[in-house]
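Q: What structure does this chain adopt?
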Amino acid sequence: MTETDRAAGAAAIFAGPGEMRARCGDFDWSATALGPVAQWPQSLRTTAAVTLASAFPTILLWGTELVQIYNDGYVPFLGVKHPAGLGRPTRDVWPEVWHINGPVYERVLRGETISFEDQLYPLARRGPDAPLDDVYITLSYTPVRDERGEVGGIQIVLIDTTAAVARRTLEEQRDELIDELEIERARLAEVFRQAPAFLAVLRGKEHVFELVNDAYSRLIGYRDVVGKPVDEALPEVRAQGFVELLDGVLATGKPYVGREVPIMLARETDGPAEQRFLDFVYQPLTGADGTRDGVVAHGSDVTEQVRARREVERLLADSERTRIAIEEANTQLEEQQVELELVNQQLQENAAELEEQTEARDRALAQLRASEERLRDVFDQAPVAVAVLSGPEHVYTIVSPRYQETPGGGRELLGKSIRDAFPELEGQPFFEIMDRVYETGEPYFAAERLVRIDRDRDGTSEDHFFDVGYQPIRDAAGRVYAIASVAVEVTQQVLARRAVEDATSAAERAKEELARTFMQAPVAIAVMEGPEHVFTLANPTYMLLAGERELLGRTLRDAFPELASQGIYEIVDRVYRTGEPFVANELAVPLSARAGDPPRDHFLNFTYQSLRDDAGAVSAVVVVAVDVTEQVLARREAEEANRAKSEFLATMSHELRTPLNAIAGYADLLLVGVRGALTADQRGDVERMKRSGQHLLSLINDILNFAKIEAGQVDLDIEPVALTTTVAGLEDLVGPQVDAKSLRLRAEPCDASVKVCADVEKIRQILLNLLTNAVKFTAPGGEIVLSCSVDDQWARIHVRDTGRGIPADRLGHIFDPFVQVDRHLTPTSQQGVGLGLAISRDLARGMGGDLSVSSEVGIGSTFTLGLKRA
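A:
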């Protein structure tokens, strides 16, 4: 080989585009340990050419001083050390990482191939005075052998994975964020669960239950409603208008406030529906995009308060009716008095008185084969997928094992064109891109490129993501004769990053939604942190309850000075210290509407609940409160009215019973002839007066008994009683009345082994009243049936008659005090004040049971006394 040939060969090494080919061609290599390029061994020339042509960052270290030759892709790693790093020993260029590279180079110079993934290198690439950059690199150290078969240098292929490592770090941070959000969600969920007022969150147009607290579960009898639409979870409310109210709130965005709304609810599984009264708010929930996607239902069961208020109203009405009844009684007494006086006058003449996600050719060929072998070694050991495709048809001539598998999927590639090897790429732009690189000599690179390939050869292409490089390979004349294809699969990184992005977005949405729900909750909620109980969170409802004062950042004692000496500070201290919750109902708390105003008592149902940190230590106290001042005041008013009624009835008892007893006494005297013998007409008149007085006395006793029951003054001796005992002897008691109206009374046998919890005398009083009414409202020839039925929990006694029945519009009032059905159809002598059924139902409920009725006009009625089994 002549010097001219050597010079031409040297020029060919650096032929082609790129900054580093130009710099290497201009560089004075005779000034380095490598000497002039014309004197370089073939192994160095070949490896240098491959290094400069590589599509990936590559550096070649040659000779005992490991002099650096690197390509364009390596330049970013050098930073400000470029271009001074070219032709210099690597130890002089990279002193800061010699403690890492030195031991590795010793092993590679002994013939070992080494690779690292995500290795951390602290590089001084911004200058000696700037901080080191932490750079993560996946790289392969490959020994390059010379013509003697000894290792002459080291070729290093690198990939900067700093971004991938950062993504993993982001994933870890994402996971921590999600964990924190879950903890926060759990904290707020606990707050809602323990709220003393009932609370439920319903989602979507079907109003599917998403969350209910303990109070709501208690209200609906602990039924499993989460995940179910309202009309499925609570079928009894379908026809009561509540679903329509929810539709309206979701459609208009306007809250609905209901006061004392009646609702029929089953309070236990398979139990009967009972009427309750609710104060509630349907509050629309608004998503981050402004759309309404749910409703919060919050409220309180005010049944007892409504009943108390109605009781006050009823008592007032009762008092008025009683007054009228007394006036009527007085009128009747006056009339009877006149009649009695007349009789007395007659008795004085004949007299009477009445009251209730190679070398030359061979050597050249040998060198060529050796070079090819070394190059193949590089390909085989490359940490990335590399292949050479020759000619305009892009026929695979070299394929690295990693390329064979990724993206080849193990399919045969050598000797095939890319179109034959990967037919599924038709329609994707890769064939056209390679044609353009081959024709123009312009390299192509794309990061995270979507490639649809059938890697598992099941007939279906799957989505994969690759960092793709197509580098043109030129001959000595500079013509492109092949393309080097490099591919790094980054599918997992892309999917992971997208997952991180999706999860982070979802977590943020969840956090925002939870915060919105908290702020829109109609129950008062606040969080006080640390042992000084500093307010860090308070929703609008709590701020409204606190009045016109600043709370956030202030301690409990500073924000509410009026609570001093009320025991509230000490209760919150104890909850923070012990972690035990505190619950209070209807506690009187003096609060000022604004600074300087005198405090006014508010009655509150509230809970102080401890919140714990990751270590389990108490970090804060949350308060959930409901203002029940109006309900408490209404109940007190009802209690006062009830006391007044009792006093009035006691007075009436004394004032009325005494003269009634006197009239009865006078009548008895007349009947025994104290004033002389009575004629038959006179005796009939006196007996009618006596019966009228006794009837009036019975009415007064019913009113007094009802008053005692309402005041809780009736003693009940509840014990296990055989069902048969409760009905024994009733036939004999009503037998004469049954016979007098030509009726049939049939008593069906009851199970003698069944026992109920009750007061036997009160049961007999109830049944006797039901039988007497049946006789009274059943026409002659009719039938009355006394029967029993039992299930696992209840025993029931039925009194059925074939009387005229009760109209549907009157059935709902049959147990109201002072109510009589068809009074005008009842003889005056059999009329009462309408308290019998009211007293009977109150006695049944006092024993833990109930009294109910079903009836059909013209067919008859059935009254059922239900008692719990013992």
